[in-house]
UniProtKB/TrEMBL annotation, chains A, B:
Aldehyde dehydrogenase domain: residues covered: 6-277, 318-378
Name by which UniProt lists this protein: Gamma-glutamyl phosphate reductase
Lineage: Bacteria, Bacillati, Bacillota, Clostridia, Eubacteriales
Molecular function (Gene Ontology), one example: glutamate-5-semialdehyde dehydrogenase activity
Purpose: Catalyzes the NADPH-dependent reduction of L-glutamate 5-phosphate into L-glutamate 5-semialdehyde and phosphate. The product spontaneously undergoes cyclization to form 1-pyrroline-5-carboxylate.
Catalytic activity entry: L-glutamate 5-semialdehyde + phosphate + NADP(+) = L-glutamyl 5-phosphate + NADPH + H(+)
Length: 416, 416
């Protein structure tokens, strides 16, 4: 077993080689990885079967087992993901600007690889390949630490990726999996200053919080989304209903799903029954304020501040009638997690104020919050959705996995 | 005395108002602050005198006392700094890009204020105003925590700034100074998750390390610079000498000053005596490798790995003769702090490889590392120099104090 520090040293050495690779070499390696994953599907399925057997024995629920499970079709999907990453434009090398200063220095800002990227995630073997491919395309080495329930699967996938790199004459240490799945090693990884240039947690709120609280290396906080739909007094109520039902029910387990409905009092009596009818199709439980209950009756559960702060990730929603746009904005800025927020309105000023004053990564007028996604935004890929304000905010594509350096061309300038 | 959590709540409330301010309102307030600082110079000087008296009693050295000291001229300089910040373009509101997606959504990325910015710094009262002005212009509230030796001065400056804001009808809680100067409160500030959007330490290596190791809020690591001048085999040796002497001696106490000289073996016998002669003008002590000593003789102290890793911040330099460009790049990537690095060369390939392969915020060909500075780079201001790769790398101007949000204009789109 490679110890974490050994892995960190290996990755640090490999990063210089990876950073220098041309686009063609990186793409060739990604395609070789994709082919190897498909060719060796039986090997992956065997390793995965052991994980699943252990998982069942440990009492994992069906949802978790499903997330863990790999079959030929899913492996083909993972391989296809690698091919898609190969097809994306290379972010490395772009000069964002270059200017000539009065003293004759030409100063430019160039996009360059990050170096070594750490990813901590849960028991989803597909993330192992997905994250490795994105980091590699962005010119960085990676250190992956997946959930221990998927360890055999992830180890097998990593072995295949590393062998594919080696078969292309590239350093296998560009892609590394933490082999010791203890919690202590995860904590040690969060403190790998001098080795890790960034650490990105992907997963549930508990995992993300643990990384944010323990890490001493730079972190990009991702994920939790307490997203609101605010139905303004002037809203097209049919549109509002469609957006609400889509944002809540189309895939309720994801972070860009709506968790809370705010309705202007002027349209509450008309809209809330429409909303309830729309949500009833998926048996959504409504936690409403007193005015909601007045309108919808006793089928509504009472909403507390705790409800307004909750990310249900299921068929539940909190609901509040507000007196004004101001109250809606204040409520959102108090309870949201800085992810995605939507106003449904026909009023120009309301739309402008909402866009301006709501503090979130993505602010929508008249569209479902479900669009907050790297693919939907046109980035071609997504490593996660940042809910912090540093470095990257919102869906993160390949650019978010790079940094910049200043390049300065002089001819003998000294400072006076 | 306002407690830290009280200040944090106040700042969080104020941030929404500050974020909405128009450019004219912000500039008017900055000019009012500048005027008030000059008008109340006597008050500031009196507070400062108490700090200086305490400082002398506590045995602060002359350098620290000088950094602490304020007089009419320095106060005028600080006020002028505010006027310069007022004159800078407002970074807030710029839409970096907007694209129409196939589904008709118009998605744009807009530059918006950070929210609440924390700055931890040492006993330099000028930083109190400088940092507050930059954060304010960038549309954010700030919480400042300065060195306790300058507390009375900083408190007086903060009081004047807050009263100037109030006189303009703006929330004084946009600018806050931590009033409890204990170490415990500083540590508590580093963990103000949910209040602070970013924390920037400005100061020496010890302060920065303490923030990086203790903070749970996002941090931008600034500062330490172990900067190298590499004199290539093909270098114009006169130019190399000028650049070396400027980078080492023009202001040796700052982070962009050179700390280490690397010389290609082919020019070592010719260049090292030129370098030694140039550095002798400022009595620079040279810590050299064995080959350096062979050429320069016994006046040279032997260099250890510790020397190669040191930021002397004074009239000392480490020196190594290298066999190749590769060795120079490897040495720099091993020992540097990711700040500023320079090659002096006439060789095209060497210049390209150095720019590409050296891992640092600013990489120079044929110019002094002393140019790594927000003003020299044309940003008009500087809050610090980032040596990390996340969010901002290199000199940070107003843009580095902002974040972005995605704004999405739809007309009823839902996800299928």
């Amino acid at each position: 077993m490679r110890q974490l520090l050994e892995i960190a040293e290996d990755a640090r050495r490999a990063k210089y080689t990876v950073a220098k690779l041309g686009t063609n070499d990186k793409n060739r390696a990604l395609l070789a990885i994709a082919d190897a994953l498909e060719a060796r599907a039986d090997e992956i399925i065997a390793a995965n079967a052991a994980d699943i057997e252990n998982g069942r024995a440990a009492g994992l629920n069906d949802g978790l087992i499903d997330r863990l499970m790999l079959d030929k079709k899913r492996i083909a999907g993972i391989a296809e993901g690698c091919r898609q990453v190969a097809a994306l434009p290379d972010p490395v090398g772009e000069v964002l600007w270059m200017r000539k200063r009065p003293n004759g220095l030409n100063i430019g800002q160039k996009r360059v690889p990050m170096g070594v990227i750490g990813i901590i995630y849960e028991a989803r073997p597909n993330v192992t390949v997905d994250a490795a491919a994105l980091c590699f395309k962005a010119g960085s080495a990676c250190i992956l630490r997946g959930g221990k329930e998927a360890f055999r699967s992830s180890m097998c996938l990593t072995k295949i990726m590393r062998e594919a790199l080696a078969s292309c004459g590239l350093p296998e240490n560009a892609i590394n999996l933490v082999e010791d799945t203890s919690r202590e090693t995860a904590t040690q990884m969060m403190k790998l200053n001098g080795y890790l240039d960034v650490l990105i947690p992907r997963g549930g709120a508990g995992l993300i919080r643990s990384v944010v609280m323990n890490a001493t290396v730079p972190v990009i906080e991702t994920g939790t989304g307490n997203c609101h739909i605010y139905v303004d007094a002037s809203a097209d109520l049919e549109m509002a209903k469609n957006i609400l039902v889509n944002a809540k029910c189309q895939r309720p387990s994801v972070c860009n799903a709506a968790e809370s409905l705010l309705v202007h009092r002027d349209v509450a009596a008309k809209f809330l029954p429409m909303a309830a009818e729309g949500l009833a199709g998926d048996h959504v439980t409504i936690h409403g304020c007193a005015r909601t209950t007045e309108i919808l009756g006793d089928a509504i559960l009472p909403a507390t501040d705790e409800d307004y702060g909750r990310e249900y990730l299921g068929y539940e929603i909190s609901c509040k009638v507000v007196d004004s746009l101001d109250e809606a904005i204040d409520h959102i800025n108090r309870f949201n997690t800085g992810h995605s927020e939507c106003i449904v309105t026909r009023d120009y000023d309301a739309s402008q104020r909402f866009l301006e004053e709501v503090d979130a990564a993505a602010v929508y007028v008249n569209a479902s919050t479900r669009f907050t996604d790297g693919f939907e935004f046109g980035f071609g890929a997504e490593i996660g959705i940042s809910t912090q304000k540093l470095h990257a905010r919102g869906p993160m594509g390949l650019n978010a996995l790079t940094t910049t350096k200043y390049i300065i061309y002089g001819n003998g300038q000294v400072r006076s």
